[in-house]
From TrEMBL:
CDD domains recorded: DRG, TGS_DRG1
Listed GO MF terms: GTP binding; GTPase activity
Species name: Ganoderma sinense ZZ0214-1
Name of protein: Uncharacterized protein
UniProt xrefs under InterPro entries: Beta-grasp_dom_sf, DRG, G_OBG, GTP-bd, GTP-binding_2, GTP1-OBG_CS, P-loop_NTPase, Small_GTP-bd
GO BP: any one term: positive regulation of cellular response to amino acid starvation
Domain OBG-type G: 1-211
NCBIfam families given in the database record: small_GTP
A Pfam match: TGS
Record keywords: GTP-binding, Nucleotide-binding
Length: 289
């Protein structure tokens, strides 16, 4: 953390050295990314042990989680951390289930599915709904392999779906053969924080996983400002999102926008409205009413 962001974060060979949340900022491809160094999570954190609830509550607000593991005992610690985060409603490296539950006043339970139900049947669906006192609802399942847990997640409605990268630290203490085995763990990057090995790969993995869109502003009559991009998330990168990231009133004042870059139809620029979806490294000029 200290080397990445220039912010001091206590570190040592002893586990759980970090006792408070330490914020820092890392610039990647011109985009400032805030990184929070959180205290370690212990077994029982979801029940409040070791200030676990406060730590996990902060993790819920993040767009990406680094789970730092010791290469000498990665799988045991990985299982504990995943279990604690799961218990607090965090779903790692998963997408929200393609299931909808629409409550209604009458008519009982109507279930439709566009894929075969292999891990749950209609009786089990009705049993889960009954547990939540839902007696009238339309249920639509569009996800292959949907489970009862997926249905519960949709009903509860308070789950967050966050990508995670497993940072396998201390590779300077293992052999090449052992390192090859570590790469079989999905979404993992082996590193050595002491020797500063493979940090570039970790940063690139972070960048691609975050899936960010950098958009540059262009004032009237001036060259684009490439020094401070407006950073948006893929899926929320329309011109309206761009305006909102600068100031909430700009979208209301906008007459039209001119866009240059990958999302524009013409190299000379394209005149667009608020709904236009921007691509990475587009340049935008906002014309006000």
């Amino acid at each position: 953390m200290s080397k990445l962001t220039g912010t001091h974060s206590e570190a040592s060979e002893i586990d759980f050295t970090t006792l408070t949340t330490v914020p820092g900022t890392l610039k990647v491809h011109g985009a400032p990314i805030q990184i929070l160094d959180l205290p370690g999570i212990i077994e029982g954190a979801n029940d409040g042990r070791g200030r676990g609830r406060q730590v996990i509550a902060v993790a819920r607000t993040c767009h990406l989680i680094f789970i730092v593991l010791d290469v000498l005992k990665p799988l045991g610690d990985k299982a504990i951390i995943e279990s604690e985060l799961e218990g607090f409603g965090i779903r790692l490296n998963k997408k929200p289930p393609a299931i909808t539950v629409r409550k209604k006043d009458k008519g009982g339970i109507a279930i439709t599915n566009t894929v075969p139900l292999t891990n749950i049947d209609q009786d089990e669906i009705k049993a889960v709904l009954s547990e939540y006192r839902i007696n009238n609802a339309d249920v639509a399942i569009r996800q292959a392999g949907a489970t009862a847990d997926d249905l519960v997640d949709v009903i509860e409605g308070n789950r967050v779906y966050i990508p995670a990268i497993y940072v396998l630290n201390k590779i300077d203490a293992i052999s090449i053969e052992e390192l090859d085995l570590l790469y079989r763990i999905p979404m993992s990057v082996p590193v050595s924080s002491r020797e500063w090995w493979n940090i570039d790969e970790l940063i690139e993995k972070m960048w691609t996983t975050l899936n960010l869109v950098r958009v540059y502003t262009k004032p009237r009559g001036l060259a684009p400002d490439y020094s401070q991009p407006v950073v948006l998330r893929r899926g929320k990168c329309s011109v309206e999102d761009f305006c909102g990231a600068i100031h909430k009133e700009i979208a209301k004042q906008m007459k039209y926008a001119i866009v240059w870059g990958a999302s524009a139809k013409h190299s000379r620029g394209q005149k667009v409205g608020l709904e236009h979806v921007l691509e990475d490294e587009d340049v935008v000029h906002i014309s006000k009413k």
